[in-house]
Design goal:
Blueprint lengths: L7 H13 L2 H7 L4 H15 L4 E4 L2 E4 L1 H30 L2 E7 L1 H6 L1 H11 L3 E7 L2 H9 L5 E5 L10 E8 L1 E5 L19 E3 L7 H10 L8 E3 L3 H9 L4 E5 H10 L3 E2 L9 E7 L7 H20 L1
Parallel strand pairs: 3-4, 3-5, 8-9, 8-10
Antiparallel strand pairs: 1-2, 5-12, 6-12, 7-10, 7-11
Helix pairs in contact: 1-2, 1-3, 1-4, 2-3, 4-11, 6-11
Length: 306
């Protein structure tokens, strides 16, 4: 697996230093200071655990490890350039549209940064986002209504004929408004005393939440509202005593800001993979390849924050 600490700037700086045979000239070509490019090279060498270059008054020279890495680094840059060129060429023939399906947790947490990164790489591509429950998006994917879907891995019967590439793991949270009575003495068995916003039947987290309820001996909730709407969940929970059961990514911003509060329940049983879902018989377009790269960059940054 590729070490996610390696960024595009590491590869770009390394290749340019080799091409120019000089740290100073490489820095000038990349519009960087010499200390900045030296720092980037050192970061790469620390990640790889080996020296890539030797320095002398005559310039720089590749080590054996550097020679091996250079081969694949140049291939990576060439592949990226080919993808960008492909997007540009298609864009010249007509506006390109990439349609992406995103589950609510992904739409709230990952997609804003991924789209921002993608727009920087391919501003001429129109990106169309569709959110909704797992079954709806998978059906769209099978029928060609979206190019790819990002979301939770569904139950085996829903994933037939779908390729899945994992990006990260996510869990479910129970959240309330600040000052909710249950925060004074948290007890999962008491949640039935208040309205509960419960995952809808079509959602990927529904079976996981039901399993957690069974594990804690909790039966049918008398005041249950089934919804996958983030807008409804946020507004209703903030302005009532409701308890919202939802993927962590949907409410990460609100929890960080303090407008919603996490109940301290152990939800480890609900942890599951989030990833890219595609049709195995389809070849990714240049636009999709660039989008995948943008998503990878954002996921790597998310890992660093954790």
């Amino acid at each position: 697996m590729i070490d996610r600490r390696i960024k595009f700037r590491h590869i770009q700086c390394f290749v340019e230093i080799v091409r120019q045979k000089s740290m100073k000239r490489a820095a000038e070509r990349l519009y960087l200071t010499q200390p900045a490019i030296s720092k980037t090279l050192k970061e790469l060498e620390d990640i790889l655990g080996a020296a890539m270059l030797t320095r002398s008054r005559a310039g720089v020279a590749l080590t054996r490890q550097g020679e091996v890495f250079l081969h694949f680094a140049e291939m990576s840059l060439a592949a990226l350039q080919q993808g960008l060129d492909g997007v540009e060429q298609v864009g010249q023939a007509g506006r390109v549209t990439l349609t992406v399906g995103a589950l609510p947790s992904v739409a709230a947490r990952l997609m804003p940064e991924a789209v921002r990164e993608f727009r920087a790489l391919a501003p001429e591509v129109t990106i169309r986002l569709i959110d909704g429950p797992h079954s709806y998006l998978i059906d769209l994917l099978r029928r060609g209504g979206v190019d790819l879907v990002i979301g939770r891995l569904g139950q085996p019967d829903t994933m037939q004929g779908i390729s899945f590439t994992q990006l990260y793991n996510e869990y479910v949270e129970f959240v309330t408004r600040p000052g909710h009575p249950l925060l004074e003495a948290p007890d999962l068995k008491r949640i039935g005393e208040w309205p509960v916003i419960f995952p809808a039947a079509a959602s990927a987290i529904r079976p996981l939440v039901e399993r957690m309820m069974i594990a804690h001996g909790i039966g049918e909730l008398p005041n249950r509202i089934e919804s996958v709407s983030g807008a409804f969940g946020r507004n209703f929970t903030r302005n009532s005593d409701a308890i919202w059961i939802i993927s962590a990514g949907v409410v990460a911003k609100e929890v960080a800001e303090g407008s919603l509060v996490r109940l301290p329940f152990d939800t480890g049983i609900t942890v599951g993979p989030v990833g890219l879902m595609t049709r195995p018989d389809s070849q990714p377009s240049p636009a999709e390849q660039v989008f995948r790269m943008a998503v990878g960059t954002v996921v790597a940054a998310m890992d660093e924050e954790i």
